[in-house]
Amino acid sequence: MAKVKNIIRMGIGAVLAAWTALQAAEADAGANVVYWEGMRLVQGQIGKLEIVKPINLWKRENGALTFVRVLQPGEQYRVYSYDEAFGGQYGVGGGYYVTNIKGHVVYKTPSREKLKLVNPGKYGARQLAVGTVVKEVSTRIASGVEKEEMEIVGTRGKQHVYKLDIDTSNERLAIETALSNDQVLGIEPVLEQAKRYDGRDGIVLAAVNGDYFKQDGSPTDLMVHRGEIVMTNTTPAAERTIFGISADGKPMIGNPDVQIRVRIGEGSSYPVDGINKPRRAHQLMLYTPYFAASTKTNALGTEVVLTNVQGVLNGNGTVTGTVKKVVVGQGNEPLQPGELVLSGHGRASDYLRQAKEGDAVEISLQYDQPEWNGVKEAVGGRYRLVSNGQAQSFAIAGVHPRTAVGIDKNGNVMLVVVDGRQPAHSQGMTLNELAKLMHELGAVDAMTLDGGGSSTFVVRQPNGQLKVENKPSDGFARPVASALLVVYKEMQENGEQEEVLDDFETESKWSASGVNYVSAAVERTTETVREGKQALKISYDFRGMPGTSGVYASREEPIWISKRPQAIGMWVYGDGSGHWLRAQLRDGSGRRIWIDFVRHVDWTGWKYVEAAVPSDVALPLMLEMPVRYMETDIGRKNAGSIYIDGLRAIFR
């Protein structure tokens, strides 16, 4: 009853927020935590309503409608019912309704599978080909990246599945390849690869293992990193599958190969057999510093060192260079930054011997499938699990841990790891079972990456640390040749820059905590706004409390900052209380750092404030508590509210 009385005292915006908060609290008590389109689904919810044009909000009492206010474009509400009365109305909670008027509202509904997770009593348990989902937890890692962890029980026994969904339309997200120790030869755990790449030009949010690899640690097939071919194929076309990110940023799966030819001076061109692979009889290989410290070749050949290299080794392009020296009968030539080495044996050695110091050299590269020209990232795999929306069949036995990558109908990417070889935790799957699973999870195209003891699922934790979340079958994360990373990219510098951390326009979930307070609350609101349609309202009551009082505002989804900022800024609608306004950061070393916006909020109305960030913070950086509103003087303790808007990181 007390909850109802509190709701009656609030305005409509607060009522709806309180209602959905109450629903969320009930959901927490027994249902799975599930996200959909950045919104946390709650028990009873059937969809959401997006306001496109101004439309009335109604209160229904005793069968009659009472006008409340006009909803504005950009506002969104959870929907709990649809009633054909009064022309068709969406119930948005608390007895409030919005009429279904075409062109003014857009209604969206989650998949039945997601609704089952938050309403198991109504929809029943989720059924998959491999068994029944008995538990599923969905967590938003960052904007556009969601993690799902599923526990499945089937005829084979238990299965544990980990899944990442990546929104490829988010321009701040990238899927990139990583190479063990930054070299083709050798292996390294996925976690260590992710840590090394972390902070190079963005924050690594998650990672899984990449291609199968040979005894020397080299990946089996094509690998492209940041637009440069690291290694060419080994496996025949009919037996290989490659995942790539195209020149325009679209994910794709295929079996491309690249044709390479070299021309020295005015002579004829000659085929190059590959990039960064061991040189065999009569072959001509091209080596880059990605391979190792040297070419690792024997003395039975000729090696031509190229300097003044111009261009990028990728499809549909040309790379030029100048002969620095020609080395005959020695082998194992050092690989230096900014240089390339052509290495030939037998007939290829004879071709290279014509080179002379100072000769111009041209290397042309062309994929056999034009859509792969200029591909940004690529990593090899093995089996095409789903093709053209159809799960494929395999006459291959074996139940093992698995790693897969898939693409859904909207062009988004999913990374999936299935644990195995641990009966009490997870049995593992056959290729046929994995193919059906990927199809059921929404993949219209999918393939395997390396599996078995290599299967590794790394995710950045709320404390800022990267961690292996699955249970690799070896009992530890096996060193592997390569990895796929999900990266939150840093901004490109061009004078002073701002990175918007939250504009409070989306369904981000905020919560209040604090110390020595009577009450504390945080909600997104349309009451008082500086930019856009919504701001964040922080309410507090410190009256009569001893010691230091404070209300703290935190977002459920971590706020990652892509590189080291000089300041954190935001607009603040002050209440003239004179309280202390701070923020709390957590850096890559786990250290907590407190920064000050102002010592006294002594104004009423909107004012822009900034807090300087120390220059020695370790990356990656998380804005753990954007607002810490505090008071130490017992004589100034009161109750009130402030609003914040346009939360941003400043780069100078």
UniProtKB/TrEMBL annotation:
Pfam families: CBM_11, NAGPA
GO terms of biological process kind: cellulose catabolic process
Domain CBM11 positions: 497-615
Protein name as catalogued: Uncharacterized protein
Domain Phosphodiester glycosidase residues, every copy: 309-486
Taxonomic source organism: Geobacillus thermocatenulatus
GO MF terms held by the record: cellulase activity
